[in-house]
Every structure is written in C-alpha cells, then in structure tokens.
Design a protein that fits this description.
two-stranded antiparallel sheet; 13% strand; alpha+beta; three-stranded antiparallel beta sheet; 157 residues
Length: 157
C-alpha cells in the first residue's frame, strides 16, 4: 500500500478506509486484464507492448462512489490507478525505477489488436478504459518515443 499512499499524497491511512479498500482491491482483481501485443513472429526480436486495464464495472463502481462522496470517490479512483500501475510494474520491472510508463504511439496493427480486445484507441493517446496502461515491453524506448513527452515534467531538459 506504500505506492497507494504515495499516489494519494498520504503518509498513513486510517483503518476505516483500509477496511473499505480491501474488498474492492480483492474484487477488482478479477477485472484486471493484461495482454502482450506483438506480431506473432516477433517474439524474440521485438517483445512488443503491454496493455493493462480494469474493466468497465470498476469504472462504474468508482463513478457511483464518486457521486455519493467525492473524497471517497478519489480514494477508490486512486486505488484503481494503483492497481494498474502496480501490475504493469510487476510485468515490466524497469518501470518502477523510471517512475512512469512511456506511452508509445501504436501502429495500425496494434490498433487492430486493441479492437480485438474490445478497446478503442483515441488519437489523444488514450484507450476506451479509464484505468489503463499501454507501454513498451520491455520499456526500452524511454521518454524519446513517449506521446506525452511535450507535456511531461519527468523529461530531462
């Protein structure tokens, strides 16, 4: 939960909040999807990309909580972000060292794979899921090919 606290800007969490977060964390794991996207013949030479997301029921639940209580909604919103970021860091460990997941621009073949997974790519650099991460696997490109480079505070000048 350290990364959750870091994301929230908190140094500690009260027991009441933890008791609310725990069942959501456990239940939402079934909605966490992760896929490696690569050309079938590129397994060794080009490991491709990884996409992770939480399904729409999680988005709907967070939105419902947000409508009842914005502060609770933010706590559960941060939990969902924590879940996808922790999962991608487990799959691509070097992301933990970098502190971010560079967002590459997918090619047409990758966009077609998104569609097969029921996802839509938006030209703004997002997919049709609120809680999602798309990055290179492994994260070899760094900031150079990241679509968010122009707006990012992590890019070295």
């Amino acid at each position: 939960m350290f990364t959750y606290c870091e994301l929230c800007g908190e140094t500690r969490l009260d027991n009441e909040l933890l008791e609310e977060l725990e069942p959501r964390f456990d239940g939402w794991q079934a909605h966490l999807k992760a896929y490696r996207l690569a050309a079938p013949d590129a397994a060794e030479t080009d490991p491709g990309f990884v996409i992770l997301w939480l399904d729409k029921p999680v988005e709907d639940e967070v939105e419902g909580i947000w409508q009842d209580s914005p502060s609770a909604g933010m706590a559960f919103h941060n939990l969902a972000i924590h879940m996808v970021m922790s999962a991608v860091q487990n799959l691509v460990p070097e992301l933990a060292d970098k502190g971010c997941a560079p967002l590459p621009k997918p090619d047409k073949e990758t966009i077609a794979l998104f569609k097969k997974l029921g996802l839509e790519w938006n030209k703004e650099g997002t997919v049709s899921r609120q809680f999602a991460v798309f990055t290179n696997m492994p994260a070899i490109t760094g900031c150079g090919t990241c679509m968010l480079k122009a707006k990012c505070g992590n890019v070295a000048s």
